[in-house]
Every structure is written in C-alpha cells, then in structure tokens.
Amino acid sequence: MRRRDFIKAASLLAGASAPAVWTGRAAAAAKPVSIKFDTYISESAGPSRLDEWYLKQLETRTNGAVKVRRYWAQSLNKVGEHLSAVRDGTSEMSLISPGYYQAQLPVTRGLEWYYRMHRSDALQWLCRDVYAEYQPLRDEWERRYNSKVLYWTNWYYAPLVTRQPIRSIDDLRGKRIRGYGAANEVIERLGGTAVPMAAPEVYTALERGVLDGVYGFDFITAVAYKLHEIAPYFTDIGDGPHGPAATIINARVWNAFPDPVKQASDQIVSEIYGGEYARIYEAAARQYVKTAKAEGTKFSSLPQAEKDRARALVQPAQTDGWVDRVAKPAGLDGPAMQALVDKAIAKYDTQGSLKRFDELAAEA
C-alpha cells in the first residue's frame, strides 16, 4: 500500500494526542502519527535493541505514516518516572522494568523470580501467556496505569559481575553487590550484601570501590556500560532467566490508532515472539562476547553442585514469599497466578533456545 493510500484509508492522527479531521484538503495536508518512545537505558543496552527493531519495523511497514521520536538514556524522564509518564500521556511508549516499580506493580512482581527456568525466550512466552490468562495482571497495567503491554521484552541472562573471581557461593559472603528488584533478595539469600542502585550509577560505584560486584545487569548491557573494565569476572551462577520487562504504550494512544497501524504492530509483535527476540539478543550477545574477551573479561560458571545449592537457598522461598507478603495483603490469589506460571514453565522451558553468555564464550 502506498503511503498516501495508507494515510487516507487509516484516517491517521495529526499527532498521537488528538484525532485529525479527514476531509478534502485537510486529509491531504495532515501530518503522520508522531509518538514518543522514552526509556531510561542507553540505545546499546539489551532491550533497546529489540525496541529499536520494533520501532523501525513500525515506521517501515506503515510506509512512514508512523514517526517515532526516541528518547534514550533518561533524556526525557528519569529512572522510576516512566510508568506514570505513560499513564499520564507525557510519554506515549516506554520500556518498563518492574524491579523499579515494586510497590506500583505487585501483581507483576509475581513474574520476577530466579532459579525457575533455563532459557530467556521461554520466559518471554511465559509472560505473554500469563498476561493473557490472569486478569489481575492485565488490570494492573491496563486499568491502574492506562497502558497496553505491546510485548514482553525481558532482559538477556545476567551474570554475576565481580571485581574478584567467584568460585563458590561462599565467596559471596560480605560482598557488596548491586541489586535490582528481586535480585536484592537473591543476593542476601546467597550471603552477599545487596546494595540497591539505579543502572546509570553503577559504573561510578564500581570505580570508587563502593561495590564489589553487580547483579541484575544483563550481559549485553553490562558490556555496553563497560562494567567489565573494572569488574572483569563474569560468572553464571545457575539462576536462569529473570528480570521480565515490558514495552508499553498509553492505552488512549493505542486505541486512537487506526486498524492498519494496530495490525502492523500486532504482526511485528507476533514475529518478536516467533523468534526475533532470540535472534536479536543472540546476535548482540555474540558480538559482546567477542568484545569482552578481547578486553580481558574472564568467563566462568559455578560447578553444578554450587548451582543446586544456590537454587535451594532461593526457591521456593522467593516465590512463596511473594504469595505471602505481596499477593495476600493485596487481596490477590497468588497461588492461582503461580499455577499459571508453573503450567507455562512446563510448556515452554524445554522449548527455549537462546544461549547464555558463558555458552557463547565457550564457543568463541
């Protein structure tokens, strides 16, 4: 479909905030849809690569009728402000990492756990299914925050990034480790001292010796942020995928989109779940493994016995803790949600294929 035909057929907006009147010359002179995408992380970070692919595809497949202004690395809103910004319409689209919004997103916290799965792409499918099946989860985003989850993006695998080598769980005792969201609990359960800290502050904290290590940074983002320059030991501790995140859009903006735009978006999202997520992340991870190895990063994986020991320290206590301390006080049926989670784990965990950073490092 040619661009002018797409615009005429779709009756697009003069901007994302107000509908245009499509009659005669007004239609011919109307502007394309213009929306803002706003994120706290840099363009080179892991989820940004998937978001940029989506945004470019949306612009291309609508023949330029949709125009997206990108605001990377807190250039519009700061960490912790994006959820309310989308709700209020000051940003139309954003990446939301729920670990920064634990009080605001108690239901979504039921998806944030460690040591329960093996592949990150399987976790993405799990989040999609639970979002579709568990009404309180949808209500949290759609009613409370006036947002539509376009797709679950999720982070790549997160190594334990440290200044000194970690060969066993015991080596974590007393170490000051930056945490994020539920990662703080994991650090404490494994014997470390969790230090909550926003991503943009981490490099300087490592440089000054405030931190002994970092946890909750996915591998791609850790290398993109140059953490390996100061903390060169990247260890897989057997935690599997974690850190679910979502790319969302203001519901009013979405509802104002004409059907051709919605259909284009839906098709792009189906391709993300159909393999683009894994393709984009693995390509980026391979690239960054080469960079990190060339710059002195040391890759390792804990022995299986240590991974099993760590898992026993974290699960099922972490998940049960969400049911008792978060879901129950909020009046949520936590066991019902976790039953859906268990069903999705059984369905998808063996189907995931996205390789971990340590597996790629062993191949390189």
Binned, the helix content reads 40-55%
> How much β-strand is present in the residues?
5-15%
Count of extended strands = 13
| Largest sheet data | 6 strands, mixed
Structural class: alpha/beta
Order of adjacent strands in the largest pleated sheet: 9-8-10-7-11-13
Order of helices and strands: HEEHEHEHEHHEEEHEHEHEEHHEHHHH
* CATH architect. name of the domain at 33-155 and 243-281 and 317-363: 3-Layer(aba) Sandwich
Oligomerization state of this entry?
A: single chain
Unreliable stretches (pLDDT < 50, length at least 5) are 1-30
Please give the count of helices. Answer: 15
Span from first to last CA? 44 Å
Tell the overall outline.
globular
Task: Give the radius of gyration.
Answer: 21 Å
Structural features, described:
- With 364 residues, this protein is an alpha/beta fold.
- It has a domain of 209 residues: D-Maltodextrin-Binding Protein, domain 2 (3-Layer(aba) Sandwich).
- The chain has 15 helices and 13 strands.
- The strands form three sheets. It has a six-stranded mixed beta sheet, sandwiched between helices. A five-stranded mixed beta sheet has the order 4-3-5-12-6.
- The chain is globular, with a radius of gyration of 21 Å.
- The N terminus is likely disordered.
